[in-house]
Structure formats: structure tokens, C-alpha cells
Amino acid sequence: MRDSQPYYGVLCSPIAPRTGTEFSMKKKAYFKADEADTGLGKFKGLEVRIGTIVDDEWDEPMGPTPMPGPTTLRSWDHKILTKYQPSYMPYCQVCCLCTMGKCDLSGDRRGACGLDIKGQQARIVLAAANIGCAAHLAHSRHLIDHLIEEYGPRTELIQGPGTEIHAPVARLVTGMRPRTLEDASIILDYCESQMTHTLSATATGQEGNWMDFESKVFHAGMVDQLSMEIADLAQVSTLGMPQADPDAPLVKSGIGMMDTNKAIILTIGHNIVPAASITDYITEKRLNEEAEVGGMCCTAWDITRRDPNAKVIGPISWQLRYIRSGKADVVVVDEQCVRTNVVEEAKKVSAPVISTSDKAVMGLPDRSDDPPDSIIKELVSGKIPGAYISDHAIVGEVAVKVALAIKDKRRKMKFFPSKKKMQKMAEECKKCSECIRACPNDQNVMEAVLAAQVGNFELLREVYHNCIGCARCESACPNDYDLHSWMVAAAEADCKEETHVVRTGRGAIQDTEIRNVGQPIVFGEIPGVIAHVGCANYPGGGQDVHDMAEEFAKRRYIIVTSGCAAISAGHVKDENGQSIYERRTGEFDAGGVVNVGSCVSNSHIAGAAIKIAAIFAKRNLRGNYAEIADYIHHRVGAVGISWGAMSQKAASIAAGFWRLGVPVIVGPHGSKYRRMLLGTAENERDWMVYDARTGDRVPTAPGPEHLFYAAETVAEANVLTAKLVLRPNDTGKGRSIKLSHYVDIHETYYGFFPDDVWKYIRRETDIPITLKDKILTQMKENNWKERRIPDPTLLKEQVMGGSS
Amino acid sequence: MKPVPWQTGEICGPDSAKALSKADVLKRDLSKSKKRLLIVGSEAPDEKHGKGDMVDYAIALAKAGKMDIIATGGAIKSFIDKGFDGAKTMGAMELAFRLQDPEWKGPHGNGPYDMIMIYGQPYYMQWTMLSGVMNFAPEIVAIALGRYFQPHAKWSFPNMKEKQYHTILDEILELVGGGK
Description:
The structure holds two protein chains of two kinds. By secondary structure, chain A is of the alpha/beta class.
């Protein structure tokens, strides 16, 4: 059976969104088999229906919102969205989504459907969140169907040792403890139903209010987070990946780490299944000395989690440079973030492409039903530029055999132009500046080309280091120069030196680790948890990610990484030649740098925050979303940073964190998401909370001040990060530690003592001793008054003795 | 010829800036404006102008035109290094949002502003900032003083040659009462 076909072994009726106490925990199972050979005999046309399975071994009471529908958590969302107002920055003032348009929405105009420009912007944000959510969810569905087919629906889900609270996101959102792949499938049914609802809200004539669009953005983000958790939990349980292991293996990374004496198979994307078939084939046939696999983007993490002999070549922005280098003999693409003209690019270097996902067939002939030998023959001969093979079982054999067959011939080929040739071509440059105008980072490509006219390739080499590999400069060039190749050729020596060691993804955070750090995080004594996640659309190279991570790791914040950001963080060596992963522990502890893994592993970062509420504060998770989000928002000093955020997936990942009340910073390109979520520090009313002990409404300092913010520079991101970890629940000691770092970072990057420190002083115990004089002066100047430290909540029902 | 955005994909909707091809075109708006804000981004310290850089220009322009300065993205450090303590700092995104509040006084307490002059942020970021201002604070006259055309401003240089650009910057400085 093909992997892309749905699994029919166990089907569950879709679970309609329900709210509140009407929900009861049900799993309706349906089994159908054309033929079954059992101990009881042989059956034809067997159908088994299992009515209801209740998880009655779980004594945790069901919370108020298991499997919430699109409006179940609307009240919570509106609280957050009142505190953090959307700031829209429209790409354009028209809507062109239906044939009544185009509609001009400028000024106070409305479109033919009645929508105004704010509503339209919120609608676009929701569309993006849905696209991102769909990508992870479809990935998750594919994995679950494949793994059920491979291992059976009753296969146990195991997050790893010390993870009694496994699947915290699933518990929180659905009220279920997914124990088997079958349970995982039920949860994905829920996710799919919700995503259909939120997507449908973007249709013309559906939602009409910006706040309700935004609430659904949060819903899509939450569903995305859930589907990611299911995907990672399933692959960690079945595919031999590290299970919540702080000592996950250190693996080789970088272009220079690839052994060109071997046949090289490049895998790109996010879905481990086809890549796993390649590493399995190499192991099974003992071809480790003859062939190797390197990955880019999240597939890189997942293959190295499974097989530490595989290598992480680089982040997603490097795929073009590596393909163009010609070092990859075969390119295997799965799904998400794959360069969409990969076939054309690989063709230039005579490397066949194997596409493996029904989401990214890439125009290749479907050879899924053909015998491997015939596919191999045609790929080796070059008769076809590539093939779509949906049967992952044969991808490994085809990819490895083809790579081995064409390697020697390909190694004799030259793919980059010589410097002499580039110099000659550069003389014909039209000096039109189109390459610069096309560059998202305004790199002065033309100046570099003009320098090459006189044999100076240094500027092209500089551009290489800041290049995000989009090749828009080439598309714009009237001479059709392969400018990206020129940069890579100019930096050839640097490429060879890209030899790094990175720690592969460990998966979840253990309960025992949370037990150790939960209190210092909530009290503020570990000043924050900073997660560097997401894509590689950096404004000035990947080193920025490393530098930001190191700045806070050395201050004993906990640093978590995932995805392409995790790769970039590891691609900088210190004076001893070590990467951040070599010199710092992988434990979830102060000063640790914790790589959780691929995109879908982002769910473990949310999971860690959720588990703090369960383990440290003994809060019930089960179907109890708003209470736990409220807890995290006020007590867990976590900040997400996606410095190179590019995709809709990054948007939906961020949205999952927004609903939990966790702020997210993106790099300057993130301003193109066209909507920030911003607090207004001086609006005291926005920062009022209930004191859960008394029910009084009390003011707090503006922390976290913003929920979604594009920082212009690393300096701004660092200052903002230090500020966004402040939480109303910090103890005096914790607040003073956080403020010490904030002041120090502010003085370092902005050059002066911040003038808003007094706002964050509630009592004199909050004042860092070494800064006392300056802060006391500031307090006096601003007529500071002592404030109570509340037990903060936005939820009236959390007030002790209040309605529950 | 109608000016086009510097980054070719950054086209806009029905409303688009007018070309600031000579300083005089600002005369009318300058004469009407009462409270002006100069917004200076992180790239300004690295952009040369005359014998100094675009931070020096900002200081001169602000003094001559009696304008408040808000530095974004850490550019404040450069002002402080130059011994100028009249600038305040804010994030670019935060600033674009706060300008939409018609009662916002700003960190100097002198607002609400009826005119902004802006330069020094990454091109695309300034593009989005100005979109927020154009769409949700239409009462503010936005003048983009970077070299490259920003369609969401009211006035913007039409992707100018460097020499001509710096000449007009000096003319604008004179226009607001400063200069040679």
C-alpha cells in the first residue's frame, strides 16, 4: 500500500467541537478488513465496531474546555487581544479575493462584501495561520497514517524517561492522554475539523470583525501546536529518536563536513519517512563507506535524531548553494520549505530529484508503481530528470543506487564558473542595479560584480555570508548571470571550512528537569526561557542567532532551539573551535542550550511551559486551556525568537504561543507579517489583573509589554528580550535579577540607563542592590508608590472563592 | 515619470507617495505643520552625509526644524556617543503603532505630531511602518528622507542618485532654517 493512501484500519467518527461540561471522553473505533486471519479463524469482509472507550484510569478531572471549538476560548482570546492590540501595516489597500473586487479599502472605505481594511488584514493573517497549520497538520497526518500502517494502531506513544506528563499540549487542549497511535489519529481528526472551521472563516461573507478573525488565528495556532506535538510524539515513539534526552548525540554539520569521496544524497524538507528509508537502506546494505546522507532544514534534524551518522548540512536558505555546488548526487525532497524549482536547479548539475510527498510532486513523472530497477535505470541515464515516488519503502533503494551509479562521473564535472570566466562576464555588467533592487537584504551585489571585473572577489564573498539564497538577484539580472553561483564560487574556501558540531534534537523536556527549574523560573530566579526557533530569512546572516543565544546563555537564561535557527546557532565556533552545543549542556537548566529538534518539536517548548503549571503549581491540565494559559502568561518568563521567520508555518507556530500568552519576537523581515500585537505601557488599565487571593483589581507593571514584535536589529531584540521576560508574579529576588540583566543589556546596546526601570519596582526588594542609587532617584522623580505583588490572573473565576 | 519602489516587489495600493525631487515641494506642508517628529533608524550611523553621517544630519535637522528625534533599532547609542541627549528611543513597530493614536504625546511629551520625517530603517521595514501611518494615521504628513522611494509616504525621494540626494538633503535643512 502506498504511504500516501489513507489508513483504513481504524476510523474514528469526527468529534464535533463541544464546549464546557457537555463533553464526555469518547473514542469510537471502527475496524474493517477485507480479509483477516485470526486465532478464531479466517474472516472476509470483517467489520468491528467498538462503541466507547473511556479513559477511566485517569483520575484528573476534566476541565471546562476539552477539544474547544473555534469560539470556545474566544473570551480568553479577547482578553489577550484587548491587552495586546493588533497594529496592522497593510501590504496593499485592495482586496482581490473575490470577483466583486478588486475593492479599494483605503481610508474608511469598505469592500463589496462589507469588510474594512482592518478586517481584511486580520483575514489575511488568519489565512496565513491556516496555511501554516495545514502544513504541519498534513505532515502529522501523513506520519500517523504511515506509522499505523507500519507498526499498528495500538503502538504505544512514549515521550521518554521522566516524562510522566507526556503530550502536555494534547492533555491541555483535548483532555486526552494519547497513549497509542490510534489515539494520535483521533486527536488529528479533531485538529482537521478545527482547521476546516478556521479556514472557512476566511471565505467571503463569513467572519467580519478583526477581533474574531484574530481569535481564530489563535485557534489555528493552538491546533497547529497540537498537531506538531502529535507528529513528534509519534516519530519519537517509533523511529528510534532520542527520547527527552539531554545528551542527544552531537552530529556533524556544515557543507565542509560532507564527504565527497562518498556518494551524497541530499534530503530537503520536514518529513522523516522517505529520508529514513535512505539511511535504513545504507545501514542494511552496509554502504556507510560508500554513501552518506545530509539533510537541510528540519529533515536534517530528524534524520540525525534517528541516525547520528547522517549530517546536518545547513538551514533552508542554503539549499540552492548546496545544490549548485553539485556535490549532492541525488536530491530527495519531502515537504515544506523545499525550493519549488528544485528540479530545474538540480538539472543544471545533473543531479536527479526524487520527490516523495503528494504535497510537492514538482512536476515529476509518477513512478510509484514501477519496479525500482527501471526507475534507477532512467534516472542514471538522465532520461528523466527525476521521479515522484510515493512508496517510501523504495525511495531508499532508488536514491542510494542512483547516487552510487552516477557519483564518479559527476565528481569529474565542474559546476561553478571559474574566476577567470566570472571576471570576463562581469565586464559586461549593465550597471542597472536590478540585482540590488531585487535583494531582500539590499546587498550590494552590483558593486561586488563590478569588483570582480578587476579580479577582486572579496565583495562577492562578503555577500555570500549575508545571502539568504533566494536568487532574486539572478532573476532580475538582464544578463542572466548566475549571481548566486558566483557568490558561492567566490566563497569556496569558506564553504570547505564550514565544519561544525551540533547537538541533534532531544525531543521533550523531562518532568524531572521541570521539577528542578519550575520554581526558579516562576519566581524569576532563572531569569527566562528564550527559544530560538524558525526559518533562516536572516537580515544579516545566521551568526546573529548564535550571538543572541550566547548573550543570554552566558547570563544563565535557559536557551531552547529548534529548526533552522538551531542549525545557525551551532554554526559559529568559539576560540577553542567549539560550537555552542559543545560548550554548553543540553539540559533544560540555567545556561543550557537545548535543541528540541525540528519544526514539530516546537511543541515541546510550549509543553515545557505547560508542564511548569502542572508540576510546580499542581494545576490540572486536562481540558483546562484558559487557566493554564493565564498561568503561563503571568508567571513563566518565556520569550520566543524567530529571527529569520519567513513562512506561514512560522506564523502559525507563533500564534500557538500567543494563545498561551507567550511573547514572540521576529527579525525585521517579520514586519512583513503585516501585523504586530502590541501593548501600551502607559495605559494602566491594560495591565490590571485580579489578585486571585482577594479578587481586587490591581495594577501591574507592563510585562510582558508586547506579544508579537518585529525587532529592527539584534540590539533591539536583545533589549526587548530582557524586558519581555518580566512577569507580574516575579518574586523580589527574581525581579531584581531580571532588572539587573535588563539594565546591563540596555546600557550595552543602547548606551544609557533605561528610564523605565522604576515602573517595574513594586517594592524596594525588587531593586538590584548594585543599581540602587540610580533606581531610587528614578523612582523619586516619577513619584513612585509601592504596589502589592498580586497572585495575578485575568480570569475572574480564578479568584479564590469566586465562581469556578 | 512616476516613481517606483526601490525594492521591485514592494508595490502598493491606490495611494502612493509624490516624488520629492526638490526641497521646495515641502514648503507648503512645512508651513502648515506645527509639531514635527524626526525618526532615525539603525542604518543612519553607517550612512555618510557631508563630513559626517546621517546621525549628524539628524541632529542638525532637528535643531533647525525644532523637531523631536526618536531613534529606532539601537540608533540612540550613536546620538549618545555624539554627546546629543535630545533623542529618545523606541522600537520602530511600536512607534508606527503609537503614531496612530491622535492623542499620543510621544516620549518627549510634545505630541501629537502632525508631520514625521523618517529614514534609516531597513527599506522593507520602513515600508511597513509607513503603511501603518498612511492607512491609520492619515492626518500625519509623512516625509521619507531615505534615498529610495517609499510609496507609503506623502513625499519620498524617487530612488535618487547619491550626489543629488545629499544635495537635496542640505536644501531641506536650509528650508527648515538650518544649513550652511
